[in-house]
């Protein structure tokens, strides 16, 4: 089976789906300008993942040190033993008692899945699949079904924009605001689920998207409480959950008011909505001042030359097309600012300008001011759009 080309023509998801469905065995080579990753399949299952260009910090030994599973001294000693005996690093660490074989396998699994899921963020590159015999190493990672990787990858792509609205920096710090509730036993959890199914309104705060307390949330919360002052980067390392699961757990804990983000000075940060409004408010404030100045200039021009004629309707036309174009540039900036607010609130730009009116960000007349016809708007992608004045 010959399969090669560019990721713009055939995406990561399509490739994994094809290989998985046909239960192929072989090596998939993926490359872009900065990275090169090899994914090995056996009967359609992923049995090995290798990053040819993996950075030093992502090597398994450094991952174990950053996760505080082993010490720097233990790693150095194991690397020295590895050089002398030519044994695998994992075998040396396990035989020395630095960690158990099960713990090492879990870290190898995490390294492989993190490399795999990062592939879903690639928007360019090349791929080539070579059908050839592949030896699986069950001691390294548990084989992954291509379909499972696809489902998890799609989930991450969908949920990342929501997470990044609040967890938007790796140097963010947090503090605990209240204790977590005790874990719910399986029997109680089943009873609660049965009650919820027949309740008119669910009142359990631990239910709902991005609002649940599970094992991941408890692990991240414990790390925050155990050693205050750890940022997102360190929490990702020590939790051993991966970047996505750690950040999602942080967002859930914030939503349920179990933790809160801190500023660099150790003070509680403003809420997400407040920070958005402050950010956009500054831009709109400057825009408002510019509009006021522009209005004053236009008023003077009207008084002096009488060449402009403003009707009572905001969308009425001016006698001078140059003045229309001049004002239109400022109005486009205002619409763009409203689009940015909408994107920050919803995670994507709207399908049409009328959605800005429905969201209370603009008035209906502002969609065409100072023209009679509405502005030309077209959404290109989740965060991309075209906005142009009407053609006359």
Give the helix/strand layout.
Layout: E1 3-6, H1 12-21, E2 26-31, E3 36-42, E4 45-51, H2 60-66, H3 72-85, H4 89-95, H5 101-118, E5 126-131, E6 144-145, H6 146-164, E7 173-176, H7 186-198, H8 215-226, H9 232-239, H10 243-255, E8 259-262, H11 272-305, H12 321-346, H13 354-358, E9 376-381, E10 384-388
Antiparallel strand pairs: 1-5, 2-3, 2-5, 3-4, 4-6, 7-8, 9-10
Helix pairs in contact: 1-6, 6-10, 8-10, 11-12
Please give a structural write-up:
- The chain has 392 residues and is an alpha+beta fold.
- The protein folds into three domains: 3-156, no CATH class; 165-186 and 205-269, Arc Repressor Mutant, subunit A (Orthogonal Bundle); 272-388, no CATH class.
- It is 47% helix and 13% strand.
- It is built from 13 helices and ten strands.
- The strands form three sheets. Strands 1-5-2-3-4-6 form a six-stranded antiparallel beta sheet. A two-stranded antiparallel sheet has the order 7-8. Strands 9-10 form a two-stranded antiparallel ribbon.
- A hairpin with a 4-residue loop joins strand 2 (26-31) and strand 3.
- The longest helix is centred in the C-terminal third of the chain and has 34 residues, at 272-305.
- It is globular.
- The two termini are 56 Å apart.
